[in-house]
Amino acid sequence: AEERTEEARKKREEEGRSTPPWVIDDPWFRLDGDGYFGAARYKLYLVDLETGEHSLLYDRDTLGGFSFDWSPDGTRLFYAAGTTGAQRDHHIYEYALVEGRERMLGLQPWRVILGVASLGRQNALAVLASETESNKFYVWRLELATGERRLLTTELGINTGLSVTADGQTIITIHQEDLQSLWVLPGTTATR
């Protein structure tokens, strides 16, 4: 667009005018083809509180839905991250701090992961996730050694939070119920 040329920018600066907004006429426009509107990218960093040094752990997330928790001994970080586009999947990763090594836990992806919590010394994670587009989130148990997962909450279809006691023996989750009402008003008529 001619209003984006270097010459146009200089003229705006001389005249004290602001930069014109980008106009996107297609709601699914993507600058690079992998994220909604192509703008947002999320990164996960480790920050050393003594030195202020930071190191990048993960930079492939286009959803911004990081969830993470530490192992009981503080040597491993477990985190969920995902991407949009054709392969809109979430996976859980384990980052070993001493070795500086990342590995994906389990091969089967989730559609969306809302929460990850270490189950203490049980060598497992509690995961609040959905396998489908249904927006029904269940609590799962993910075995760290094998990557196998087992559904823990079958009757609760929509959960919005996840927390685990320090010993890993009890999980608390918030169950959300959407109530709907149908009102019939006597003496009224339906019109088109």
Offer a quick outline of the entry.
With 192 residues, this protein is mainly beta. The chain has one helix spanning 6-15, and strands at residues 42-47, 54-61, 67-70, 76-82, 90-96, 101-110, 112-118, 124-130, 138-143, 149-151, 159-164, 171-175. The strands form four sheets. Strands 3-4-5-6 form a four-stranded antiparallel β-sheet, with no helix packed on it. It has a four-stranded antiparallel β-sheet with strand order 7-8-9-10, with no helix packed on it.
- Secondary structure tally, helices: 1
Question: Which range does the strand content fall in?
Answer: 35-45%
**Major sheet summary line:** 4 strands, antiparallel
For the largest sheet, list the strands in their spatial order: 3-4-5-6
Amount of helix: under 10%
Radius of gyration: 23 Å
Number of strands: 12
Overall form: flat
Q: State the separation between the terminal residues, measured CA to CA.
A: 46 Å
Q: Quote the average pLDDT.
A: 78
What would the keywords be for this entry?
4-stranded antiparallel β-sheet; 12 strands; mainly beta; 192 residues; 1 helix; flat
What does this structure look like?
With 192 residues, the protein is mainly β. It has one helix at 6-15, and strands spanning 42-47, 54-61, 67-70, 76-82, 90-96, 101-110, 112-118, 124-130, 138-143, 149-151, 159-164, 171-175. It has a 4-stranded antiparallel beta sheet with strand order 3-4-5-6, with no helix packed on it. Strands 7-8-9-10 form a 4-stranded antiparallel beta sheet, with no helix packed on it. The protein has a two-stranded antiparallel ribbon with strand order 1-2. The protein is flat, with a radius of gyration of 23 Å. The two termini are 46 Å apart.
